[in-house]
Design a protein that fits this description.
about 170 residues, mainly alpha
């Protein structure tokens, strides 16, 4: 009897990553709900809690950026498909690759600039007023989510043939 576990297949590891992201999104939504409720109740009784505004703001930032990355996983993001719908099938297939390239370039720039901002904030020692946490922890949401968006962008187009076909057709209209 062996206690050595077989390695987790790549597909399962990708699934674990996105389940973890979904879990973080659930935690951030719950955190925003709890802190905003605390803020409301504390102001109602005249004992405002100064940290609740910062916590809810920073959780909202993380939630928005992680949600953006998660949306790319299933191509659930805003896009204008009227132009693509006018194209012949061959051009539609080429546009899918242009779509991926444009997303890769955009999110690469966002990730790079986000990491640069986080590094500057880390080295400067910038902290938030009420919590005193490093602001690099907040701006890191931009960089990490952009990197996740690149991964999700590639996965949605190149690993899911059905989704790729829907994108070629000009959208995900049901």
């Amino acid at each position: 009897m062996s206690f050595v576990q077989a390695p987790v297949p790549v597909r399962d590891r990708r699934g674990l990553l996105w389940r973890f992201i979904d879990y973080l999104l659930l935690l951030s939504v719950t955190g925003v709900l709890v802190t905003v409720s605390l803020q409301f109740i504390s102001r109602l009784i005249g004992q405002a809690l100064p940290w609740t505004e910062e916590v809810s703001r920073y959780l909202f930032i993380w939630m928005a950026f992680l949600g953006m990355a998660a949306g790319f996983r299933s191509a659930q993001h805003a896009r204008v498909s009227a132009f693509v719908n006018l194209m012949p099938p061959l051009l539609k297939r080429l546009l899918v690759h242009l779509y991926v390239l444009a997303g890769f370039v955009f999110f690469s720039v966002v990730a790079y600039e986000g990491f640069q901002l986080s590094l500057r904030q880390f080295h400067s020692g910038e902290t938030s007023p009420a919590l005193g946490v490093g602001m690099y922890l907040v701006s890191l949401a931009v960089a990490l989510s952009a990197a996740l968006a690149i991964l999700a962008h590639f996965e949605s187009v190149y690993r899911d043939p059905a989704l790729r076909e829907k994108i070629k057709e000009g959208g995900l209209q049901e």
